[in-house]
Amino acid sequence: MNKFIDLRSDTVTNQPDFMINAMVNAEVGDDVYNDDPTVKKLEELASDILGKESALFVPSGTFGNQLCLFTHCPRGSEVILGDSCHIVAHEVGASSVIAGVQLRTIDSSTGELSPEAIEKKLRVGYDIHMPETSLICLENAHSNGNVIPVESMKKTYELAKEHNLPVHLDGARIFNAAIALNTDVKELTKYCDSVMVCLSKGLCAPFGSIIAGDKSFIDVARKKRKLMGGGLRQVGYFAAAGIVALNEMRARLIEDHDNAKLLATELSKIPQIEVDFNRLQINMVFFKFKDLSINTQDLIKYFFDSNIKINDVEGGEMRFVTHYWVTKEDILKVCSSLKEFLNSK
Asked: Which GO BP annotation is one of this protein's (predicted)?
């Protein structure tokens, strides 16, 4: 079978042999009864790395985010968050179905939320006409490729505490953010009350995410996880991959960042392409075609025939994502194939 170069996302990562071996040899139990030793080990490891009191293994990032909203928020209350964040843009409106909350968005092209903008949106205190704010959400690294500075997170957290509000952090790619900011991940998680972290993106695990927070929060979330259908049984096979992801895959994410910079540089050499270097902070490269008449469906087919997988444009942009299975040689092949496609038009 031909090897595909897959630039659609870092969610496409297959598992390296050493991760598969850990899965095959995992000791397992029934996690709903809280007796899967490998899941317990993963949760303890994750809570330690993230600087939180407790952690919970959940099926996916969307599940983890929505479980945190469900646990934090009374039904009919309101959540403040950026208008371009993942919870708003790519989680199927689940907050209205699961937590029964209203999302109150702030204009946020970079992913940062200014304290002034948050303050204007807050609805705290009883008013017969209005829902009350129950939560503020941040995303870091942001799915638009930006990383939110620690100081910005601190200001949001301090404002939230002034109004006795919790902060949830969508940290799907928080380890990418920590590397980009050259800081320990705990410097980011100290400014949130709950955090969700994906194991199945650049860390290469086949399944699962972690939510972390204080023990009382996780105890409530554990029961609500069961309500949502997330009470799993011998899930230690997947937890074993998560342990490898946290212990062995975090540090190498810098390679994906470096490869993204190489990809952006090579793409920028193609006259028909405009690369957004302002959002080149993690493992994502965003670019546009200067000629709007280019048929991207034709490009997708051309690439697929060349054993390259990409997504179509979204919001006028294309996004290529580097990960464990994308090498420097792959990047050069992608750019060469793209030149060939454009020159054939």
From this structure: glycine biosynthetic process
Q: What is the mean pLDDT of each run of 10 residues along the chain (345 residues)?
A: 88 97 98 96 98 98 98 98 96 97 94 95 91 98 95 98 98 98 98 98 97 98 98 97 98 98 98 96 97 93 97 95 98 97 88
Are 221 and 110 found together in one domain? yes
| Cβ–Cβ < 8 Å for 35, 239 | no
Question: Mutual orientation of helices 296-305 and 328-343 as an angle, nearest 10°?
Answer: 130
Taking each helix axis from N to C end, the angle separating 37-50 and 236-244, rounded to the nearest 10 degrees, works out to: 30
Give domain status of residue 170, yes or no.
Answer: yes
Q: Is pTM, for the whole model, over 0.90?
A: yes
Both 131 and 264 in one domain: the answer is no
Split into its structural domains, the chain has a count of 2
Q: Is 332 within a domain?
A: yes
For the chain, the residue count is: 345
d(CA 284, CA 10): 9
Contacts of 110 (CB under 8 A, 6+ apart): 142, 144, 146
Q: Where are the alpha helices (DSSP H) in 142-210?
A: 150-162, 174-180, 186-189
| 46 domain-assigned | yes
CA-closest candidate to residue 226, choices 63, 102, 47, 79: 63
